[in-house]
Amino acid sequence: MRDIRAAITGIGAYLPEYRLTNEELSTMVETTDEWIMQRIGIKERRILKEKGKATSDMGTAAVNELLKKTNTHPDEIDLVICATITPDRPLPAAANVISRKARLTNAWSFDINAACSGFVFALTTGVQFIESGRYKKVIIVGADMMSSITDYTDRTTCPLFGDGAAAVLLEPTTEDVGIIDHINHTDGKGRHYLHMKAGGSKFPASAETVEKRMHYVHQDGQTVFKYAVSRMADVAVEIMEKNKVTPENLAWLVPHQANMRIIDAVARRMKISPKQVMINIQKYGNTTAATIPLCLYDYESQLKKGDNIILAAFGAGFTWGSMYLKWAYDTDQ
C-alpha cells in the first residue's frame, strides 16, 4: 500500500472590496504609479476598511468559502493552523478566533509567525498531522491585515502591502499526488533588516514608542532584496534538483508576491518561462502569509490533477522555504 500523503483538496479566499490604487497613494506620499510599477510591479492593493474588522474576519470568510466549496461540515475539521503576523490581538491566536467564528467546534488551533514564509511553514506543519494518520482534515489559513502595521507616511514601504486571506484543506491520499517534499530555513540575523521595532517584550507599547512610529513594519530594502533573491532562488532550485523536477515538467512556480524583480530573478535562476509563474502582485500587493494561497486561488481553474508545482517564499527573520507538490484535483471535480 502506498504511504499516506497530504493533499490540498480545496481552497477559499477573501479580499476586501476597497482598492488602494497607485494614483491614490501618490496623494498620500511622494510617489508615482510609474515609480511603483517599475520597482515593485504593484498597481493596486486591497485594504480592509470596515470598522471593527480584522485579520480573523478575513480568515473566517476564506474558511467559510472553503467549507462550502468542498462540501465539508465544520465538525469534520480536526485542526486549524493560521499563518499571520497581524493577529487581531497579541493573544489569543487568530486561529482560535477563526475556529470560533467558523464554528469549527471539534478543531484545535494555533498560529505560526514566519512572516512572508508563513503559509509554507504552516503547510509543512499541517502535512505532518495528515501523514501521521492522526487527522483527516486540516485547514491551513494564510491571512494578514498589513494595512494595520503599514506607515502611510513612509514611501519606501507603504506601496508594498495589502490585506487578504486564503485557506486550503489538507486531506490524506494514497494516490500519486499531494505534498511530496519541503525545505525550510531560518537565519535570525535577518531580524535587523525586516521587523516591527516595538509592541513586543523588548519595547512594550508606550507613549514614546507610538510617538517614534515604532509600531509599523520597517525594512532595509536593499539588504532584504539581496537576500530574498538568493535564498528563494537557491531553495527553489534545490528542491527541483532533489526531486528531479525539470523546467520542462514543471507546471507552475508559485512564488511569494513581494516584488516583480525578485519573482523574475527566481524564475530565471530556475530556467523556467514566465508563463510557468503564478503572478497576481499587480492586483493585491504583498499580503504576506496570504500571497501564495491567493495565487493558487486565482489560478485554480488552470490547475490540472498531477501538475508539478513548486512553492517558494522568503520573509522576515529571515525565513525562507520551498515545497514540491503534485496538484490533487481538476477544478471541474
Structure description:
- The chain is α/β, with parallel strands linked by helices and 333 residues long.
- It has 2 domains: 5-175, Thiolase/Chalcone synthase (Peroxisomal Thiolase, Chain A, domain 1); 180-326, Peroxisomal Thiolase, Chain A, domain 1.
- The chain has 10 helices and 13 strands.
- It has helices spanning 22-25, 33-39, 55-69, 94-101, 118-131, 207-211, 221-242, 260-270, 281-284, 291-299, and strands at 5-14, 18-21, 44-47, 79-83, 108-112, 138-145, 163-173, 178-186, 194-196, 217-219, 252-255, 308-315, 319-326.
- Strands 1-7-6-4-5 form a 5-stranded mixed beta sheet, with helices on both faces.
- β4, α4 and β5 form a beta-alpha-beta unit.
- α3 (55-69) packs across α4 and α7 (221-242) runs parallel beside α8 (260-270).
Question: Which helices and strands occur, and which strands form pairs?
Answer:
Layout: E1 5-14, E2 18-21, H1 22-25, H2 33-39, E3 44-47, H3 55-69, E4 79-83, H4 94-101, E5 108-112, H5 118-131, E6 138-145, E7 163-173, E8 178-186, E9 194-196, H6 207-211, E10 217-219, H7 221-242, E11 252-255, H8 260-270, H9 281-284, H10 291-299, E12 308-315, E13 319-326
Parallel strand pairs: 4-5, 4-6, 11-12
Antiparallel strand pairs: 1-7, 2-3, 6-7, 8-13, 9-10, 12-13
Helix pairs in contact: 3-4, 7-8
